[in-house]
Automatic annotation (TrEMBL):
Gene Ontology MF: a single term: G protein activity
Record keywords, A-Z: Golgi apparatus, GTP-binding, Hydrolase, Lipoprotein, Magnesium, Membrane, Metal-binding, Nucleotide-binding, Prenylation, Protein transport, Transport
Cofactor: Mg(2+)
Organism taxonomic ancestry: Eukaryota, Metazoa, Spiralia, Lophotrochozoa, Mollusca
Superkingdom of origin organism: Eukaryota
Identification of the protein by name: Ras-related protein Rab-36
Localization of this protein: Golgi apparatus membrane
Cited Pfam families: Ras (PF00071)
Gene Ontology cellular component terms for the protein in this record: Golgi membrane
Segments traversing the membrane: none
Protein task: The small GTPases Rab are key regulators of intracellular membrane trafficking, from the formation of transport vesicles to their fusion with membranes. Rabs cycle between an inactive GDP-bound form and an active GTP-bound form that is able to recruit to membranes different sets of downstream effectors directly responsible for vesicle formation, movement, tethering and fusion.
Catalytic class of the enzyme: hydrolase
Organism expressing this protein natively: Lottia gigantea
Enzyme Commission number(s) of this protein: 3.6.5.2
Amino acid sequence: MSSGRTVLSNNVAKDRIVSKFQQAYHADATPYQKMNFHPKVKAASSENRTGTVGLKISKAVIVGDVSVGKTCFVNRFCHDLFDRDYKATIGVDFEVEKFSILSTNFTLQIWDTAGQERFKCIAASYYRGANVVIVAFDLSDEESLNNVEKWMVDASENANDPVKFLVGNKRDLLSEAAYEDIESRAVEKANKLGAEFWAVSAKNGLNVREFFFRAVCLTYDSLLLNELESTKTVSSKQIGSNLISIQKENTDLYEAKNKQKSKCCS
Ligand SMILES: Nc1nc2c(ncn2[C@@H]2O[C@H](COP(=O)(O)OP(=O)(O)OP(=O)(O)O)[C@@H](O)[C@H]2O)c(=O)[nH]1
């Protein structure tokens, strides 16, 4: 976390408090149509029934061609800095950001990977288990948009049912007309990839904070909803040569008053 930020008692900076559901950048370029936190997520958050979601560290990976501005994008959000000199990322780098979402602590690890081919193997080993996949391209470089498909396939392969984004950076370099031209192709590409499109500028900060807030809102909502919905856990025990499944009601996150006795079945 950058110095100079007001940090609250729960170790979360004041500018990392998320109390409203961040909307998509472009209504026609998102597979995520929800406009608000799920009512069950809101209720569980206000009643502190957030299970492991507030304890775990969620993971975001950012991938894309060389020099599209991945490091600058992360640095703009995490440190409010912009470096105009290019320094290639060697392998991977990461930042940790703490949020408070609907008063629940939520930690996001942001993995910034190298775009250079020679570091691809190292970077790819960090894609595993990602909850958020961000494929970045340079809005002023059509070639980098042409390559987003392979980045999305590679990064999503071992991810954990991720929320997917296509982020066009360097918006500051384009006129309105030039932007509209590339936007239509980017939206088409995002829809094809099942990803949500954002146009940002790491240089002037345009949409950077909004983007990360959107990413954590969607991730928190989906992780907590999954946890709330998995009310039934099935564990298996090997007894002799028989596999016995024990189904038990795990109602901790729901109304405790509805708790029932564990049931056994074969
Ligand atoms: N005009 C403008 N330049 C940018 C922006 N973001 C990054 N740059 C410049 O683009 C160059 C590359 O930025 P990086 O963030 O290092 O790119 P990267 O994608 O992390 O590169 P690799 O680590 O090699 O994969 C630098 O010279 C930055 O100053 C932006 O939003 N606008």
